[in-house]
Write a structure and sequence with these properties.
The structure is a homodimer.
Chain A: E1 5-9, H1 13-25, E2 29-33, H2 36-46, E3 50-54, H3 62-71, E4 80-85, H4 91-97, E5 102-106, H5 110-124, E6 132-135, E7 138-141, E8 146-149, E9 152-154, H6 158-169, E10 174-175, H7 177-185, H8 194-207, E11 220-223, E12 227-230
Parallel strand pairs in A: 1-2, 1-3, 3-4, 4-5
Antiparallel strand pairs in A: 6-7, 7-8, 8-9, 10-12, 11-12
The structure holds a DNA duplex.
DNA sequence: TGCATTGGTAACGATAATGTCACATTAATA
DNA sequence: TATTAATGTGACATTATCGTTACCAATGCA
């Protein structure tokens, strides 16, 4: 199980805590730093999967710090999201030029930050080097062509496997039955849309034993009138 | 149902069709008019999100028509893209002065038009790059097809979702029941106007749990005799 | 061939969503 | 205040959508 570590660099503790809280609810592990000088060793040692970087810091400017990170081979790969105030929005361009992956202007809704982070996570770390697709407690081994839930092997048919593979590669997004048929079955076959339902059912059943007790759409939610959506964790209840 | 409606005003049908085709591939809904006199009623009662306006029209000059739109309170906010021939390029300045948002000189590549349109849509609509519609404490995830209030997932039916999506895309403006039926239900279905009331009620109810205690039209205000208006701000009491 | 596995479909029950109504409540007006 | 119109609200029947099971065809394999 790979934890997704996020480093929050901001000099205001309340903001750090707010972000931390929101992210931890979504299953991220959070690290904190209140200045650039504090952040650097953490980045080097802990290698977070993502840095959320306030643009206004006491010691070094966000832009300078970002440039430094992107100059260093060791830290270049780590994606950065900028936090900018409304009045600093012109610096956004500089930030993006300097290698930031996204920006959010304060004040922002936690939901927005989370979505951005998830988008970036999705972009960068969908598939590990060894052909593993890991989302939450689900692990799909593309080489071995098998699926683990909480490190436990679960059996399923080829179609269910393909379906799950697609879902894990495209989480948190609703797909219509037609889209799923296109993506998983192929765009040139004709099968009834309801067939998707049946395979969703089979996939859910396959994932269920490991899903502790109640599965209630733990991984696959039905979006009534729209289709189905995969996500690793239940949206906040 | 897409809420990004574009009205194409041009006297040459092939050009209209070409633009229409390109835009529909990108998910826009298209309306057409071949003259200014035909365009005006469409603009008034369908309220497109954007008007693509040919500068050379049989009845009224593009400039005059544009001025008329910008004089009227009801149509002033609707952005306009001019289509100008190479030889008319000096009129671009006049057009921009009169309130046009952008221009494209013919001949143009469809791709270019779409890019410009999308740029304008992005500017005016509150849709972020990730398909998030964020207004105040409301967040509608178009990809995930779900809604958050204060970062808390709220459940609602498809119609309520569509209604809210429309409202969030067109805030601070009152819409009659007939207009809402057109925009949300579609212009070709017949349902009682009072049905809107019921769905407004259901939407309010869905948004209420998060609306601390008193919701009293926190998001959706009724405009007596006119219809309903969505706004994230508290109505001045 | 016989058997097991898988995939697609139909059918049926369960559930959610929808539109409409009746009635309550509120606002506007005289 | 009395009256009227507009809106809010809960309940209902109807319909649409979804979950689930059973079944049969196709496939692969021993």
């Amino acid at each position: 199980m790979s934890f997704q570590k996020v480093l929050i660099v901001d000099d205001e503790a309340p903001i750090r805590e707010m972000i931390k809280l929101a992210l931890e609810l979504e299953g991220f592990t959070c690290l904190q730093a209140q200045s650039a000088s504090e952040a650097l060793p953490i980045i080097v040692d802990q290698r977070p999967d993502l840095v959320v970087l306030d643009w206004m810091m006491p010691d070094v400017s966000g832009l300078d710090f970002l440039r430094r990170l992107k100059r260093d081979d060791n830290t270049r790969e780590i994606p950065v999201i900028m936090l900018t105030a409304k009045t600093e929005e012109n610096s956004v361009v500089n930030g993006l030029d300097a290698g930031a992956d996204d920006y959010i202007s304060k004040p922002f809704r936690p939901r927005e930050l989370i979505s951005r982070i998830q988008a970036i996570m999705r972009r960068i770390s969908k598939i590990t080097g060894d052909g593993l697709l890991v989302v939450g407690e689900l692990c799909l081994d593309m080489k071995g062509h098998c699926v683990f839930v909480d490190d436990q092997l679960v059996a399923m048919g080829p179609t269910e496997y393909n379906l799950l593979k697609f879902f894990m590669g495209h989480p948190d997004r609703a797909y219509s039955r037609a889209q799923l048929l296109d993506q998983v079955w192929g765009s040139n076959v004709y099968v009834e849309e309801r067939t998707v339902d049946v395979h969703i059912r089979r996939l859910r059943k396959a994932l269920k034993p490991a899903a502790d007790g109640v599965d209630c759409g733990r991984f696959i939610q039905t979006v009534r009138g729209a289709g189905y959506r995969f996500s690793a964790r239940l949206a906040s209840l």
